[in-house]
Amino acid sequence: MSETMTQFITGGQFLVEPITEAKVYSREDFTEEHRDIYNMVMEFDRDRILAQKEEIEKYNPDLIKSLIKEMGELGLLGIDVPE
């Protein structure tokens, strides 16, 4: 029986360690679900973040809390945690 260990690249290690073709992942590899999430994030960024860039940079806590709440409602917080 063989065991496979997954090695995670940390920090800037990716700059000095060789990678294999199997480790490369790009938008061309997206599934339909990945594309839907990508499009949702890009739309949210364009419509909600970039549209209020100046106000965000002034650190308006109410606006930032509101945007974080919206991101949570869209399921974007903790998106890298499996269901």
UniProtKB/TrEMBL annotation:
Domain Acyl-CoA dehydrogenase/oxidase N-terminal: 31-83
InterPro entries cross-referenced by the UniProt entry: AcylCoA_DH/ox_N, AcylCoA_DH/ox_N_sf, AcylCoA_DH/oxidase_NM_dom_sf
Any Pfam family: Acyl-CoA_dh_N
Signal peptide region: none
MF (Gene Ontology): flavin adenine dinucleotide binding; oxidoreductase activity, acting on the CH-CH group of donors
Name of the protein: Acyl-CoA dehydrogenase/oxidase N-terminal domain-containing protein
Organism this protein belongs to: marine metagenome
Lineage: unclassified sequences, metagenomes, ecological metagenomes
